[in-house]
Structure formats: C-alpha cells, structure tokens
Amino acid sequence: MTLDRDAILSLLKGDNDTWLFETARKTTREIFGDEIYLRGIVEFSSFCRCHCNYCGLRAPNKEIRRYRLCRHEIMEAVDELAELNLATVVLQSGEDPHFDVATVGKIITEIKARHQVAITLSLGERGREAFSHWRDCGADRYLLKMETLDASLYESYRPGSGFAARLKGVEHLKRLGYEAGSGIITGLPGMTIETLADDILALTEMTLHMISAGPFVPHPQTPFGENEPADVMVALRTMAILRILNPKANIPSTSALETVQKEGRKMGIESGANVLMFSVTPASVRKSYSIYPGKNQEEKSAADTVAGAHELIRSMGLIPSKKVGGSKVQ
Ligand code: SAM
Ligand code: SF4
C-alpha cells in the first residue's frame, strides 16, 4: 500500500486511528504470522566520543558511571542468551574506539564459533574499514539510526556528525551485505508533524531491513533535559504507518516506549512491531547504560527477562519465536 504525504499527516494527527492500527496489525500478521522475534542486547560499553544532545551517554556528561565489559564478560552474557534459546545477539555500545576494529572482529568471530546466532551490531559510525571487517568476521546486521532525515535538524541534534556521511554509512552497510537498519526518534525538540511525515517517506525510500522509531525521553544531564518527552500516540502512529509502508521490515517495539508509557511495549506490538528487544547486559552494570532515565532499571536475571517477554507475547495470543528472524526484505 502507498500513502501520500497528506494521508500520512492526517494519520499522524490521529484522524483515523482505528483504521491505522488495525491495518498495521493485519499487515504484520500477514507477513510474520503470529510470531514475534526476540533479540537480547549486550551493552558492552557506556563510553562514547559523541555529543548527541539527547543522549545520556554523550561524552560531556561527567555524571554517569562509565564501564566497559571485558571479552570474557561479553562471552558469558552471549552464552547465557544462547542457552535461553535467543537466536539473535545485539552488540551495542557508545561510539567507543577503545574497542578497536580488530578487537570487535575477534568478539564477532568467537561468538560465531560458539553459537548459531545472528549478530546485530549497533556501535555507531565506525568507518568503512570497520564495517567491512566486521561483516567478514560474520556480523549479520547493523543498526545505524539517522534519528531524523532532516539534515539541518540532524546536525543540530548531533554536533560534530555530518548528515551526509551518516546516510552514506547506511548505504554502505547495505552494499556490504548487512541487513541494514536505521530509524528515528520521534518528538525530539524542534520536530514537527511535517518532519515526521517526511522522515517516514525518506525511511521508506531507503528500503531498509530494519526500521526503528522510538519516542524521545529527556535525560536531565543533556542539553535537551528540560524538554517534554515525546507524545506516545504519535510514536505509535509513526510505527503503524512505517509498518503499512514497509510490510516486510523488522520493526522493534522499543524500550523507550515502555519508559514513556506503562505497557508501551505491548502497545508497540499492537501497532505493527514484530520484534522485542531487551537488555541481557550483566546486572552489575546494566543501570549505568543510561541513555535516558528509566532505561535498564529492571534487576531481573536474563532468564527472568526472557520469561517475562514470553509471557507478554503469549498474553497477546502471539508466539515467542525461536527463529533467527532475518529480514524478509530482498
Ligand atoms: N552509539 C550508537 C549510535 O548512536 O548509533 C548506538 C547506541 S545508541 C545509545 C542507540 C540509540 O539510542 C540511538 O540510535 C538513539 O536513537 C537512542 N537514544 C539515545 N538517546 C535517546 C533518548 N533520550 N530518547 C530516546 N532514544 C534515545
Ligand atoms: Fe553516543 Fe549513540 Fe548516545 Fe550519540 S546516541 S551519545 S553516539 S551512545
């Protein structure tokens, strides 16, 4: 189905929520059946060299505790995740050059030697050589969110990072054969409903394997700390429209949704998401990965987290999938 800009604007304003959410759910079930794919995230470093104005991990934030997991700790988390039958591990971090190209490559190689899991990387802009080497080592997917497709807003949100270079980064990932993911944060300061409509159209043009749209959650130790959180309904409508326009893309229900709204992840699944991601970062450091307040506050073990995810999915009449859950986008 196609939707033009005016139709998208009208849907974002809530003019036809019943049709929108029903169509998004129906589209998801047609493509993915009743299965929801599960991903375990290992957040292995909270160090970051960037200055993103929205994110608690930004380099100038001196108030958070920084940590790095050693290779052994990363492997332990991945082993546990594989024992729990999770078929995808997401390795995520701030942009941390301490984990150089070769070190990350060895971690990927070791995970692939130990387990039959898919590896998604979310390590920021680390350059062509890194992207290429990590792909050669066996990484399957890479998530590099644009955050917005409006070049001037982008550069105001991410000082020191060029819009064109990041966009080229996403295209390069595709050329290397990764399942490439990108996405946006909804409700960032200065964004309008028109920005969102244009972002949705631009993301759709990019033919992505994964698309993530999560709501902005203000972090007090950032320049955007005093701003309002995103409107959760607008975030859900954005996801639903993205689903209708990108039926085959993997779309996660983000943890940020749960932070801004009780049962937000469930609402995300009801709005067209087919993927649930959760942190399996060791409990000793999990809370320090504080992108925004409320992130990673659960003290559950990985086993209990997975059991909770299964329960949530089953309570919706859906099936927690054991599949790798690769993209259906060609
Ligand atoms: N450092 C890598 C990068 O930026 O691509 C990967 C990790 S970064 C913490 C993962 C995502 O967190 C970002 O792409 C951004 O969308 C999201 N994020 C950061 N701060 C946020 C906030 N305050 N509210 C909502 N999402 C946020
Ligand atoms: Fe660093 Fe990513 Fe946060 Fe930006 S969004 S400050 S790159 S961790």
Could you name the key traits of this structure?
330 residues, alpha/beta, TIM Barrel, 13 helices, 9 strands, globular, binds S-adenosylmethionine, binds iron/sulfur cluster
Written overview of the protein:
- The chain has 330 residues and is of the alpha/beta class.
- The chain contains 13 helices and nine strands.
- Strands 1, 2, 3, 4, 5, 6, 7, 8 and 9 form a nine-stranded parallel β-sheet that branches.
- Helix 3 packs parallel to helix 4 (101-114) and helix 8 (193-205) packs parallel to helix 9 (232-245).
- The model has no long low-confidence stretch (mean pLDDT 96).
- Bound molecules: S-adenosylmethionine (SAM) and iron/sulfur cluster.
Q: Tell me the series of helices and strands, N- to C-terminal.
A: HHEHEHEHEHHEHEHEHHEHHE
- In CATH, the homologous superfamily goes by the name Aldolase class I
Rg result: 18 Å
Tell me the CATH topology.
TIM Barrel
Mean pLDDT, to the nearest integer, reads 96
Computed structural class: alpha/beta
